[in-house]
Amino acid sequence: MVAAGKLSVVVVMVIVIATISNSVSVDPDMLQDVCVADLNNAVKMNGFACKPNFSASDFFFAGLTKPQPTNNTMGSHVTLANVMLIPGLNTLGVSIARIDYAPGGIRTPHTHPRATEIFFVLYGELDVGFITTAEVLVPMTLNQGEVFIFPKGLVHFQINNGKEPAAAIAVFNSQNPGVQDIPPTLFTAMPPVPNSVLSKAFQISYKEVDAIRSKLA
After folding, report:
1. 110 in a labelled binding site
2. Where does the Cupin type-1 domain lie (predicted)?
3. 77 marked as binding residue
4. Is the peptide bond before 109 cis (omega within 30 degrees of 0)?
5. Same domain, 135 and 145
6. Are 106 and 74 in contact (CB under 8 A)?
7. Do 60 and 136 lie in a common domain?
8. What is the pLDDT of residue 10?
9. Which H or E run includes 76?
């Protein structure tokens, strides 16, 4: 009976470990060497169906080699390389992005609902931070070659407070991490979030809500 009891404990521990292992995996594990996304297939699963034939080009992307224009309102540009641009990422559970910042450029507060982000500074200096669910700001100033982690789902930001351009590489543990930029999510959603909600939430007038909407439109 003692041996049986010990065996039961071992079985329970194995089940718990297996459950935890599955729960921390962001994207489902692959069951074959490759599953290149068939982006034209009408069948959409949790990911994409595999296309029957593939080539090296399905695993290649040259879009991160050069800085992109940052002459926009926020002074930044994100070049995302996810499964939509690299079909070979399908089922592999990773993606990557390059972010370019003009002096004073900002990556506004946003979240990635499906991925943790590893953030690596290519050059320049960036002030970054994330906010916990307890509303604690975790800030850091990063320089070339330094790394910072933005935990999955938490609001985070980056800003170039320096006088020179900056750039960074972000790596995600999902083939399609998703992104929700907080300001446009709230003020440019369609149909619109009611003025009464935004006015009450931010303690501003309806006129101020409309002014913010017009600036972000």
Report:
1. yes
2. 62-210
3. no
4. no
5. yes
6. yes
7. yes
8. 52
9. strand 76-81
